[in-house]
Specification:
- This protein is of the alpha/beta class.
- It folds into two domains: 91 residues, no CATH class; 184 residues, no CATH class.
- Helix content is 46%, strand content 15%.
- A four-stranded parallel beta sheet has the order 2-5-3-4, with helices on both faces. Strands 1-9-8 form a three-stranded mixed beta sheet.
- Strand 8 and strand 9 form a beta hairpin.
- Helix 4 packs across helix 5 and helix 10 packs antiparallel against helix 11.
- The longest helix is centred in the N-terminal third of the chain and has 23 residues.
């Protein structure tokens, strides 16, 4: 193994550590599943300096100045929420997984959208139990495609691919290629569901800038443009963790963008809805990169 590969394998976000976590989540006793996530989160919070500092800055922007100790407590809670959601996601791999409650206020909204035969675009984000929330899409009776960015740690790719396909999802990896949109359009023509991230990080630095929690941030407009191009309905969905193995899907409504003005209106309504959720539950905003780089104001 090359030195670079060895360093990647030793990082806290490596595939090796996630496989280790999987064993504990699937085979560990209930007290371990409930008690270990906060402790593991504290360890990662202590050693992952760059991620910790990024979360600190993001939370400071959302919550405002709160004092040295409270700001670090707020940042730690993001790591703890991530650990809890990951535990409840990984434990579903077991032969007898505990049931998860997923509340969907208006399931007919999705079925009505798919009845048109043009597929369905579902913008979402790394909030709450977003990967658990995505599984409700499988209940709609149509194949589900998830558009995701390549893992920053290459040793995690195989593990995460296996995790995401465990429930029958097809994975489309986004990138800079002009051909990235082709499999998305083909899936929509087959009247399938396509879930896409809009988070203000990674490739979304090339996205559309909009005020978010008091500062300009770049969000991805791809889902909205794709919906306009294919005439597919669009329903933004965000997942809030409401308790132990309990999640609630929050929707921003249905949009049918046909013009550039429609795209802009749907985009802004979605970001405003997302912003309200982040302010309501800032600890569930699971972004570990700077949303507001120092070079932007």
């Amino acid at each position: 193994m090359l030195p670079g590969q060895l360093r990647a394998a030793a990082r806290f976000d490596s595939g090796w550590w996630r496989r280790f976590a999987e064993l504990g989540c699937v085979y560990g006793p209930e007290w371990w599943k409930r008690g270990s996530p906060p402790v593991i989160a504290a360890i990662i919070f202590a050693i992952a300096r760059e991620r910790r500092e990024a979360v600190l800055r993001n939370q400071q922007q959302v919550r405002g100045p709160r004092g040295w100790l409270r700001e670090r407590r707020d940042a730690y809670r993001v790591f703890a929420e991530f650990a809890r959601s990951m535990t409840e996601s990984l434990e579903q791999w077991g032969s007898h997984p505990p049931p998860i409650v997923r509340e969907m206020p208006d399931p007919e909204l999705f079925r009505d959208a798919l009845a048109g035969g043009r597929g369905l675009v579902v913008p979402t984000a790394h909030f709450g139990g977003w990967d658990i929330g995505a599984r409700f899409l499988s209940d709609l009776g149509r194949p589900v495609n998830l558009v995701v960015a390549p893992e920053p740690n290459p040793t995690t790719h195989e593990f995460m691919h296996r995790l995401r396909t465990r429930f029958g999802f097809n994975i489309i990896y986004s990138g800079r290629s002009l051909f990235t949109a082709l499999p998305i359009r083909q899936a929509l023509r087959r009247n399938e569901v396509v879930g896409m991230q809009i988070d203000p990080w990674g490739s979304s630095r090339r996205g559309c800038r909009i005020d978010f929690c008091g500062r300009s941030a770049p969000f991805q407009t791809g889902p909205f443009v794709i919906a306009q191009m294919t005439r597919a309905p669009l329903i933004p969905v965000f997942t809030v963790r409401t308790g132990v193995r309990r999640y609630q899907m929050r929707t921003a409504g249905r949009f049918d963008p046909r013009t550039a003005a429609d795209v802009a209106a749907a985009f802004e309504a979605t970001i405003r809805f997302y912003e309200r959720l982040v302010r309501e539950e800032p600890a569930q905003w699971l972004l570990f990169d700077d949303v507001w780089p120092a070079s932007h104001t």
